[in-house]
Amino acid sequence: MDSRFLRSYLLPHRVRVWLYSKREQASSLIIKLEKLMRKRGMEVAVHSSAPPELHAVRMSAAEAKRWADLAVVVGGDGTLLRAFHEVGSTLPILGINSGSVGFLMEVMPDQVERAVEALVKGDYVIEERMSGIALIGGREYSFINEIVLSSPRHDKLIRISSYVDGALVQSGRADGLIVATPTGSTAYALSAGGPVLDPQLSAFVLVPIAPFSALLKPVVFSSSRRITISIDCRCRIVVDGLVSLEAEPCEVEVRGVPGGLRLIKLPFSEELWSRLRRRLTDTIPSQAAL
Asked: Where along the chain do its domains lie?
């Protein structure tokens, strides 16, 4: 065997990073990040929507899934959700916050140099979280946070029936229903009165929106159970706030996907519960420690 090939085969290849951002506010940060990565010998490609000032190769999500080692997402939680819906669980994702709270984002703007150094050295872990799949009309829709079911008309209550393993658990009228993963339990579901779930759980929380029926309460079920939601009229279903569709009859089956979301965690990052306090109080990181 050619010795040059052997050396190339035995030595680790340079870290390949796919940069993703769709926020104009993040332009200066992503340009800085790309320069830092190249300086440290990383191979960099960018999403086609990246700022024109970047001279890196433009690469679609389909190409990135085959080429990259990881995705670095610059923006807020919504940007990370969009990136996931393009690459799925194929690539581990590191979030760099250019928004406000950024609950899913791992790195603050003033930490990007340390983050690049950690990536080069391999000084990180990959946290696997459960994601969800909603089966609607014979099609599957993946989600990180939640699906939301409601009436296409905002002035109309809907009757929601929830079944677990074929048994009716609860039924009543409400404005809608949120079905959230543990990751999504700190988003819309929390605002609607649901509990916070540990992100390492494999479970769903069902949270009614403005329930008219007094017995409709948030409930938590293991993702190993067969969960079906049925609504007595045409309904609107919103997936992670990104995909909206209408269905009639309105019946949705929800399943968990173990390890469906892979997040890169760095040793210096803010720990989860501090981040949660910040989410609950809408404070910046320095204030959350007070």
From this structure: 7-124+266-288, 131-258
